[in-house]
Amino acid sequence: MNNFYGFTGKIARIDLSSGSVTTITPPEEVYRKYLGGWAMGMYFLIKEGLAEPDKQALGPDNMLQLLVGPVTGIAPNPRTAIVTKSPYGFNCITFCGGQGGANLKFAGWDGLQIVGKADKPVYLAVIDDHIEIRSAEAFWGMGTEEAEIEMRKNVLAPLEVSGSTLAESDMIKKWAKLRPPRKQGIGGKRLASAWVIGPAGENGVWFANMVTEGARAHGRYGSGAVAGSKNLKGIVVRGTRGQKFADKQKFLRLMNNIQKREGKSHFWRTYGTAGASTREANIVGGYPIRNWQWESWADPKTVKTLSGPFVDQLSFARKQACPGCALHCMYPARVTSENPLLDQTITDMPDWEAMGMVGGNIGYLEATGTDPGDPYTGTFDDMTENASKTQYTTWLSDNAGMDFIEGGALVGLLMELRQRALVEPADLDGIDPGWGDLESVKAIFEKIIYRKGIGRILGKGVYETARYLSKKKDNGAIMDYCMTGKRYAQPAHGTRSNHDRNALDYVTVVRPCEHTGGGSAAFRKTPIDYEGAVEGQNLNAAINSMIYCLFASGFWGDEGNLELLKAVTGWSDFNKKALLEVGERAYALSRLFNLRSQNIKEPREEWDSPKMFPGRWFKEPLPTGPFKGKTAFDGDIARLFDESLPKYWKQRGWSPDRGIPEKEKLEKLDIAQIAEDIAAKLRS
Amino acid sequence: MDNGNQKEQISELKSQFQKGAISRREFLRMLTALGISVSAAGVFMDAAAAASDKTDDSEPKSGYTILFDPAKCTGCMACAVACAEKHMKAIAPEEARHTINLEFSRIRPMRFQFVDFVNVCQYCELIKWAEGSEQHPCEAVCPTAALHRVKAGDGEEGLTGMGYMTVDRDRCLGINDCGRCLEVCEEQFGSGISFDPIEGKAQVCTRCGGDPECVKACPEGALAFIPVQVNGRYYANSPDHAAELLYKKMFNVEREL
Asked: Smallest CA–CA separation between B228 and chain A, in Å?
């Protein structure tokens, strides 16, 4: 067995069809090349042959990987990755915070690979080396919150379980008489962590996710649907082995430095990402409003409803951190409302993406009868009620185990189609979604979660819904309102002002239309700094392989990325170049995977094409705000796709005509062995 | 008793208390023996403690307890890392050369849904007039007297002593053969006992001999080391019950956790 620091050297492979559990021990070379998380996940996914288009994401062949990395565990900001094939056909690479990653490391695993399909609902109980597949029939159908609470109760380490030994005679007589031993013993501690799916995952909603700690989600690309397709309700992990460091004292010192820097970051420590709403989004144009028809409200009072200070004063109950993190960006909140539906909702925040996607995007903020270009005419009570609506919708998504970015974009699409009278209530099982109408949001969500009626289509996400309605109504214009990039919803960062995201950023990220891709500042430069952009993306992918939180990357810097990593692993020769190469490998493999798994012959036609992105970015000028009149890339679609994109590919060492990594590049990255076959097929 | 002599005696007691030579309980008892009312003695004691705080903050303190503020705590586990690191080194120096293992921590934040509860021994004491003893309950049921208090002056500086409990690992029978301390704690009080993952011997918070590492490590100021105000048993709850109380308090909703 490998004797590693930072890693455990073991990955468990669980076959739910046969019920077998085996151990994989990758050689050190694999760890050095891929670290963990994203890069390692893609390596195994391609090795498993899942890039082949005939391998179904929701079939037993697919492999759900829950992975950690060298700095997951006791570290400043650890995270976990889920890497699998998405129900959308491309890769599903999705990250999450919480304590679970540390627990998995402490249990002695660098990851879990789950293949096959169980006959009946099951969950995995991982207690150190011991991995059990247990019945989850009692938990099937539960929301994520309840399922997590119940499942964790059942997973105790041997250290917490003890037979009853206490007798009255052990106690002082007077005491024993008052309070004789009741032989009830143990079980009040909760040291296990769980990832669970909700009804959305059980019912195969394409954008269902896996949730931990009530509201932290491996949010995007459908990890929950993959788990659901395997009849896997959850994974519960309790580790008692601790974590090994090559140079523990150095590690502790560097960890402390990072935590001290984080402790001074008042942006995160005040409202978390909720602070972005009024500080940046409504000013620079990046607040999704009514399916992106607007990106900032004309009246600054409107946005106050969903701003950090307002929701904090209204509802934040406390703050919560991932292990070792001094940023504590999550704020559990309590909703109080006269509306019994909203009252007593307990959820997290809303964070920035929720404020955008299930707030502004579905029209919760404006007063009835006005639009975002009008002065705010609502009352103070309306504001509190509208904020609560977003919090309720966040909860609805989290508890169902569903990506609220895709969900919010989907509702936004339907509302805009109704606004423009392009669909009828009859097309939506009688639902008539008007902007900000909570009842119809709830009705649509229920259709999706339980895949009822129109929910069978809606459960496939925004793009498929738009296509379906476009075909049904025989109206191509419907696709103009589909706010997706490469068939997945645009998150709450706008492209038109070029002060939030540059359109090329969204076009090039290999996790379709992600907003956390790195290198954003370089993309926004004029002229675009291709070298900086590519390096930013590579660093981002490397960080997501280490694997720690992007919010913290500024506080880590090279000291954290290299020195801390070296203190953990003991790889004294590991340098910046090696780190960036991990990210470059992740990028190349993910790109090849996306093209091959969707059987794309002509990327410029089928994938990296203007057709895959919203026309609104380029054709509709921003109607309000300081960047009124701006469009993405100044509306120059041809320059983006015919000039800038090939330049970007060239910078990467990918072919400028199709964006296929060149053979020399793959050889240089030492991944030709697993990737050249696929690349050659795509080149021909 | 003449007044001058009483003042002198009080001053002597104060200095002994500040040095940790006598426990809070003894201090209180001796003051009342000098004819000072219980409430007035309490004021004396706090003043003495405050004075001792002023003189030297890092001086180990006797008769103190650890309280956590759930509104400030973020559940970041810095306390557990600091505790585990300190105590693992003491118990298993060889294993601790490269490893940090939170199972060695005697303070454990536990994440329930949206609430974090920091579980640490509250130093419950039995009540003489009701239960016939003043021992700690775990101490009372330990068949080998492995769980015991370490007098001021004894123990290892920064680790044990100043009247706080510790476990004699040679005498402890371990989780596989005994577990009475754990059972009585979890059944009737809180959940202050844990077991090390190597030998399965009992572990209890020693308050680091009066200068706890966890309190110093907390980045949020959520842990306080303060003079005992009431018998710790009135703070102690099993973590699930404590979390349910917190949940109700913070969110105004009852939920089984």
From this structure: 23
